[in-house]
Amino acid sequence: MAGADKEKRINFKMVLAIAVVITAVTGLGGCKNAAPPKDPGTDDLVKEEKLMINQGILSDIGSTYHDIAGKYGDMLESDYIDGGLYFTFENSPAAYYFMDDEGNSSNPTPADDALCFCMDVAAGNLFDNFNASQETSDLEEALDVTMEISFSEMNETYMCSFEYNGCDILINMEESETTIDENSAVRVFDHELKQKL
Fold first, then answer.
1. Which pTM was predicted?
2. Half-sphere exposure of 148 (CA within 13 A, CB side)
């Protein structure tokens, strides 16, 4: 009988060893909250998000006053800058300029159907996946555009400009010829609506 017990212990040990191997290979068993096995080498991979224009914000150009107020809430402020009247809203990422059918852009309160022809927005809000600062060459490559860099002697700042999806985009780069800061002021115009002013 001692031989039979010894044989059972050997078979039990073999079954237990096979079960451990199967569990290790297939990932079966273990704690319910255990993390799934990692794919070797994935810790070293960095998913780089593409630098692009935020289409949700860009789509505000050409929208009506009614639509923008519906999207961002009540108007908070209106004031004049550079000869135009701008409006900000409770949750808006930008300041908006509107024009009516006659091309007037200085109405104290725009009509519901007045169109947004221009906005002022920070670069960090307009561009998705924007770092604290970006080189102009990064934007040119990501957006497949050519930027024109100029120096404004009146303001003593560098500006870059480019066209994108029917919009003229101007970025104030302050003292840098090649770097755009996330807080850099960006003015976006609807190219066709701007011509009506």
1. 0.72
2. 9
